[in-house]
Amino acid sequence: MVKSEADIVEAFVRHTLAYVSHLVILENGSNDDTPEILHALAKEGFPITILEDRSSGKYHSERMTRLMREHAVEHHGADWVLPLDVDEFVAAAPGQDLIDDRFESNQPIALPWQTYVPHESDDPLELNPVLRMRRRLVHGCRAVNVMVPRKLAALPNAVLMRGNHELRICDRPCAAAGHESAYLAHFPVRSPGQYLAKIIIAALQNEVIPDRSPEAGWHYRGPYQLAKRDPQAFVAGFAEAACRYLLLPGEKVDPEAKGSTVPVAEAPFPFRGGPLLYTKPIDDKARASQAILGYMEELARRFGILTKSLNEESQVSLDMTEKLTAQLRSRLDQLVDRAMVQEVQLVEKERVIQELAQALTDKESVIQELIGREAELAAKERVIQELAAALKQIPSEMKRSWTWRIGRLIVGPLSKLRGWQQDRQITADRKVSITAAPSASQSSPESSHRTRLAETAVKELYDSLTENQRKEICFEWDHLDPTVGILRTFVANHWQITRRAIRSDFFTSQQQSLIHEIFKGLVNPDWYSRFLKQLKDDTGGRPWGADQSIAIFGTPGGGKFEFVIAGRHLTLRADGNSEERIAFGGPIFYGHAATGFWESARHPGNVFWPQAQRASKVYQMLDGRQRRLALVARRPDEPGIGFPGLHGPLPGIPVTEMTGDQKHELQQVLGTMIEPFRKEDQHRVLHCLQKMGGLDRCALAFYRDGNLAGQDEWDNWRLTGPAFAWFFRGTPHVHVWAHVATDPAVTLNARKGAFLRAHEDTQEQRQTAA
Fold it and tell me: What's this model's pTM, rounded to 2 decimal places?
């Protein structure tokens, strides 16, 4: 639906038709060039249907529902309907369709909003506001728009609510599924004149509807009263008003922030509409007066027709009704304003409750860890008891011998010494990793120097599997999957490697315990509780193993093998060094959406965010020339962590351009990156890096687009070497892709998206998840 939007309507049509097959546009009596632009686009051949409705009221829900059912579904046979206003632009991740087989045809899909705002750095010569406005609000927006499947849109009792934010059936909200790879960019405020016209016309359209709901148009009321009371203050406060559009009165976007400034981030919108042909430069002041006066003329004409049709008695009754309605409306507005203040207070209380809930979750993780340790201690106690029983069988003469006493003195300290040597070796490797590659005579760490706790448990798990279980989760070394290629080497941000969930009837309780032991063995013990928190946050609170699956490749104990565990924001491997050229046994993935899909600046509660904070310290140490080398305009494709090789280009600042103290800080960053994982994998990463020349052969890049917190902390950064790729993507939430080897020729098999298989959980588990 469109009314007097000549500055943006052409951009909307050209861009939106890159995602949809047909547009049905309701032209609501525009007073500018909007109708001419639409007809020119139709004449050019764009698949658009233009309807006219010059009614004065803001009957948004009724109009959009009629367009959805009568035109989109009945006339054009739409499979999905996407209701939009002309200042809303849809976007999907590169290579992703707006709709695919992931979505059910009996549930709406919710697209989150990202609000773009004007900024003093905008290019005034750029006619396309979507290209001109390059900054969006960091805090996002609570609002969503729904996409409606044909099955629901055709129902006679289905109603699109005002703003297209919700679908109701029989006056009951219809729950919408989230969309992880698409969103709506909202451009509601584009210039002072456009904003003035928008506020006044929208407020008057609400006044035309005497029976409107009290909360309708609440975000227009305050600016409208300010425009009536003090037009100069309205224009002077335009930039701040644009940033606070749709925020409740007095609402803070950051409880710690001082003042009224609302943070914004540079994030150019991926416009797909091409050049504009019919949009003309517009005098902003003339635009406002033209739109407002045109609408007022229309209201006056309609009022004249109405009063002429009434007799004198009816006109007196109308005047009395109008006066009473105005009094009631004023009282209702006061009540709504009071309710909004209370809602702000409730939002603040909700934030406190969430912080308390987070503290409880952390305590729960600690308790779970203690429970796990209790089982370990019980197992150790059994071993000690068995040793004590065996000790009683040793003849007393042997116990008195000097060899027995010396043995007791040596065995214990030797085991402690081995652990101390491993810790020292990792520390030494971190220091050496900044230097050039060792000579060819230096070999990789011997397998006998690596503990095999996780790999030993993999062998025990494999031996416990039945033939039917092996058919489901065990594969040949280079098993080829028809969807993802060589299954063992695949990695994605959200996938299941097999269709059997760990926490299901498919595995016995003993096998589930073994898998959990393997998982614990793959991570740093200090990080175990943090991984549990991440998995719980990212699966809607489901228990460990409910959304993760495993696979075993090769034959543990009988040649090379690899164990893989995968789920949302998790891919880890145990291979017993079967893949000698590759750290971790292959590419890994970890991530966290601690507070939802769109995290705010500085990512509160995100367990991996300290990695970005540490990397940002390196940037703060760079001088102006170094920063220009380090900054890159746009992020690469997420799964693009293939190796550039010895002579390929590396994004960002070469480490050789850094000073000694900057290199030292980068070493600390590297230590933070590998810290979440077991010592064996840390050691292997550092060995691979040294083999290819150390950090001196790498480059560090910080990406401008998608950054939320300015140059204090960088959401998106990457460390790249000839056979080293570690990409930290922090927007909209944390994704980290890591691929490390000793040979740049190692190929990559990585894709972004959800690659899910139907998990066969028990009924009890499905109820638990619900």
Answer: 0.49
Tokens 């249907």 label which residue? 49
The predicted pLDDT at position 340 comes to: 53
Q: Which helix (H) or strand (E) holds 619?
A: helix 609-621
Burial degree of 527 (CB within 10 A; 0-12, 13-18, 19+): middle
Task: Verify cis geometry, omega within 30 degrees of 0, for the bond prior to 732.
Answer: yes
Assigned token pair, 630: 């380090």
Give bridge partners of residue 480 from the DSSP assignment: 486
Strands 172-173 and 177-178: unpaired
Angle at which helices 679-691 and 402-432 cross, to 10°: 50
Pick the more confident residue, 35 or 382.
35
Distance CA 287, CA 281 (A): 10
Q: How far apart are CA 573 and CA 454, in angstroms?
A: 10
User: Tokens in use for 359?
Assistant: 């503290």
Q: Looking at the DSSP assignment, which residues form a beta bridge with residue 147?
A: 109
Measuring CA to CA, how many Å separate 122 from each of 114, 131, 268?
A: 18, 9, 11
CA-based torsion, 323, 324, 330, 336: positive or negative: negative
Q: How many CB atoms lie within 10 A of CB 258?
A: 7
Q: Residue holding tokens 């027709």? A: 305
- State the amino acid at position 733 in one-letter form: H
Alpha helix segments (H runs only) across 56-146: 60-66, 129-132
pLDDT by residue (tens digit) across 330-377?
Answer: 665 565 556 555 555 565 666 667 667 777 767 766 776 666 666 666
Residues 6+ apart with CB under 8 A from 585: 562, 573, 574, 575, 578, 579
Q: Give CB contacts under 8 A, 24+ apart, made by 306-311.
A: none
Tokens at 583, concatenated: 């750290």
As a whole number of angstroms, the distance between CA 15 and CA 22 comes to: 12
Q: In whole angstroms, what is the distance from residue 422 CA to residue 681 CA?
A: 12
d(C-alpha 129, C-alpha 273), whole Å: 12
pLDDT tens digits for range 141-195: 667 889 999 999 999 999 998 788 899 999 888 888 888 788 999 998 888 888 8
Cβ atoms within 10 A of the Cβ of 71, count?
A: 17
Phi, psi (degrees; rounded to nearest 5) at 762: -75, 165
> Checking phi first, is residue 618 left (phi over 0); if not, alpha (psi -120 to 50) or beta?
alpha
Note the pLDDT tens digit of each residue in 620-635. 999 999 999 999 988 9
pLDDT digits (tens, 9 = 90+) for 142-156: 678 899 999 999 999
C-alpha to C-alpha distance for 653 and 629, rounded to whole angstroms: 5
Token readout for 530 is 């943090």
Please give the C-alpha separations between residue 59 and each of 5, 63, 539, in angstroms, as whole numbers.
Answer: 18, 6, 40
- Max mean pLDDT among 196-205, 367-376, 723-732 falls in 723-732
What torsion, rounded to 10 degrees, do the Cα atoms 274, 279, 284, 290 define?
Answer: -140
Q: Tell me the one-letter amino acid at 22.
A: H
Which residues, other chains included, contact 383 with Cβ-Cβ below 8 Å and sequence gap of 6+? none
pLDDT in tens, 532-579: 999 999 998 999 999 999 999 999 988 899 999 999 999 999 998 888
